[in-house]
Amino acid sequence: MIVLRSGPVSVRFEHRTLYATVALGLLAAALVLVGLCQGATWLSPAEVVDSLVGRGDSVRIVVTWRLPRVVAALAFGAALALAGAVIQHVARNPLGSPDVLGVDAGAYTGALLVLTSTGATSWLLTTAALAGAVLTAAAVYLLSLRGGLDRVRLVVIGIAVNAILTAVNNWIVLRADHDVAIAATGWSVGSLNGLGWDDLSLPLIIVALLLTTFTVLSRTLNQATIGDELAVATGVRLGQVRLTAMLAAVACTATVTAVTGPIVFIALAAPQIGRRIFRSPTVGLLPAALTGAVLLLAADLLAQVLLAPVALPVGVVTAAIGGCYLLWLLSKEMRKV
């Protein structure tokens, strides 16, 4: 163990936790630098650093165009991963993520209804996406309660609801005006293309508040891993804590979806990959957040270079990787049943 002290406050880390955190942090920093260099024209790291401090001829390119995309990848990757980690923790199922349970599709349905019927403002889109996500999560939960909540039933019902909502979303797009349908179709894949500071100001504030909520709840959620009865005996209000955590997870998913469209795979895979990197017995929030940020950054860079100079939506890359991961995870889970 490594103990860090500052006055009366002390924090204990396992060696592997500290090393993994530093390694992922350095990897994220390297990807951020590459993301700021990458674009229609390649900028050297020295030019990027000069631009960040307000010097040189590339300030507008780096600060106005590329930096918002990189910040969005970091923040939204961490937010989606934390949403997935909380849902997997509460459901005690590695397949329990917003992608699989239809929360992404529900958020997209809410946003689509606003986008195709009224003038869509940032507040309205976020609110509609949140309403769609909450209603979807509630429907999946209530349908799974028959005869007691079962983790396999939860996933199966979630997949069914996701399929139904995907069909509904396709119907809405087909009924929409031509220009709106084209925009909605591109948005449905999940993309960071064209994001600016005006698009991110409100979502980043919401995500920051939700990340703070997860931080406050993290210790209590960890206590719940010792078992429900023991956790209640130590004074943990499990029902209240889990409801708050689930609502925060749904809000994270809805906020990201309202800005980028549904980005799959990150919420599903990042918690499990992070758990293996940190060799943690349970799904941890810090490993999930760091892994999610790195995964989305790396996927977005790959999306930019695969068909350069055309930048693919990042959701194309995450979906391709996520399909393979989901097949592996499903086969692994089915062996346990």
From TrEMBL:
Q: How does it sit in the membrane?
A: Multi-pass membrane protein
Q: Name one GO cellular component term.
A: plasma membrane
The compartments listed are:
Cell membrane
At the top level, the lineage of the source is Bacteria
Q: What is its main location?
A: membrane
Example of a GO MF term? transmembrane transporter activity
List, alphabetically, the CDD domains matched. Answer: TM_ABC_iron-siderophores_like
Biological processes per GO annotation: siderophore-iron import into cell
Q: Where are its TM segments located? A: 18-37, 70-91, 122-142, 154-174, 180-197, 204-221, 241-270, 282-299, 305-330
Could you list this entry's UniProt keywords, alphabetically sorted: Cell membrane, Membrane, Transmembrane, Transmembrane helix, Transport
Q: Which InterPro entries match?
A: ABC_BtuC-like, ABC_transptr_permease_BtuC
Family that this chain belongs to: Belongs to the binding-protein-dependent transport system permease family. FecCD subfamily.
Q: What is this protein called?
A: Iron complex transport system permease protein
